[in-house]
Amino acid sequence: MRKPITAPFVSAIALIALALAMTVSISVPVAGQTTPPTTITATVETGGPRLRVRAEPGFEHAIIARLEDGQVVNALARTTSGAWILVPVPEPATPYGWVSTAFVRLSAPVVALPIANSTTAFVPPAPAPTVPVTPVPGVALIPAGRPGLYGKLAVPVFDEKRKTYDVWLVNADGTGLRKVVEQASAPALSYDGSQLAYRHWQVDDRGIVVAASDGSRALRLTDKLEDTLPAFAPDRTRTAFSSYREGDRKIRLYYAWTDEQNLTAWEWGPGIFGEDPYWMADGRILFRVTRPNREAEELWIMNGDASDQSLLFITPSLRAPAAAPDGRTVVYMALATDASGSDNWEIYSFDLVERTVHRLTQNAARDGLPVWSPNGEYIAFVSDRGGRWGLWIMEPDGTNVARVVELPGPVDGFVEFEPEYLNRGWLEEQIDWKP
Fold first, then answer.
1. All domains of the chain in start order, with CATH
2. Which of 164, 240, 320, 384 pairs with 69 at a CA distance of 20 to 30 A?
């Protein structure tokens, strides 16, 4: 005969049932809400490599960020199938991105997340009220008389005591000058300003490196010191560069994927003898070709897959070409002969539509390494005007020249103990300006 259940045992069962009911009610999303009622986290589990974050769900979409193995982030939404989840990205331009569910461990069932099959379909929760931030005295976002001046610039600076280069960043208004990478030069910023590529001179870590714009999360793409002058593709998936890596020491164009799972340098076509690649916003690439036997420099352009290579113009001197955001005008530095017969580096512009050249600077000091502002309203360049190297800006017609900041050292220098064919000083350097 079965014994009757006692009252205390019934009470225990009731408590367990109540606890289970409360747990279930927490994990099931409420209809119509945009985020789960409790925070669900995703732990990256790749076994080592960083996890690629995509702009939209699907492996065919652009990579906008990467997460470290073991990193924990909030899970915000999921696709209908549950194969992709939306996570926050620590970059203002792209606050959200998608990762494959196969490479993360969720703290709750994936069905507990709300459905959003695209980034635009996700409705973020209303932000909590914030207290206004008091501006720091002496720091202006836009200087008086300079509307539209924003973003940051990356500049190589030579340390004369250590006999090597370092990469520095500075805000476009001249504030916040800071060193971000040591033993590095030829910096390039991605189009959204979130990533930094550079040539690393460090003996045990040479090559082209891609990192966050503050120098963190560095990833070496190539392992040859001969690789230099990197340039990001508009979608950040590839980096173009030029190199003397072949035995004949002739400079050629290469590219590398900015992904640790594709660490291979690829040569374009059967071999493009060129240098100074500049990846334009529309996907085309500018580069220059030197013809020593003719004492001429040529500016060329091609598509991002190396097709439709076309000669733009020939000139006696050309270095550091950079295209405007609209793709119409190219600025560059070139040797100019003054009245006394002396040569000096000046800045010029070339209109790709009208095929006309304009001289923008005329100064006894060296002016060079020009680059456009993100909105195309200014041109930045480096100069040793006044006897000290600094970062300068001017308008596209060469007027309203002003110094942004004095640099902590020269831009022209020769790295100690490196062969002569690798030491070309500022003639093989570049600066960049992005948001």
1. 38-123 (2.30.30.40), 152-434 (2.120.10.30)
2. 240
Question: Are 350 and 330 contacting, i.e. CB atoms less than 8 angstroms apart?
Answer: yes
Q: What is each CA distance from 183 to 41, 92, 128, 225, 377, in whole angstroms?
A: 38, 29, 43, 12, 32
Which residues make beta-bridge pairs with 322? 331
Residue 136, CA distances (Å) to 133, 146, 175, 176 in order? 9, 20, 11, 12
Buried b (16+ CB within 10 A) or exposed e, 163-186: ebbbbbbbbbbbeebeebbebbbb
**Contact between residue 299 and residue 286 where contact means Cβ atoms under 8 Å apart:** yes
Own/partner long-range contacts of 351-354 (Cβ < 8 Å, ≥24 apart) = 352/312, 352/327, 352/328, 353/328
pLDDT at 2 over 70: no
Return phi, psi of residue 275, to 5°: -155, 180
Give phi and psi for 224, each to the nearest 5: -120, 130
Q: How far apart are the first and last CA of the chain?
A: 81
Q: What is the pLDDT of residues 121-170, one digit of tens each?
A: 776 655 434 334 333 333 333 344 567 789 999 999 999 999 999 999 99
Distance from CA of residue 2 to its chain's centroid? Answer: 74
pTM value is 0.68
CA distances (Å), origin 296, targets 314, 317, 318:
7, 7, 9
E strand or H helix that includes residue 14:
helix 7-27
Count helices and strands (H / E) in the chain.
1, 32
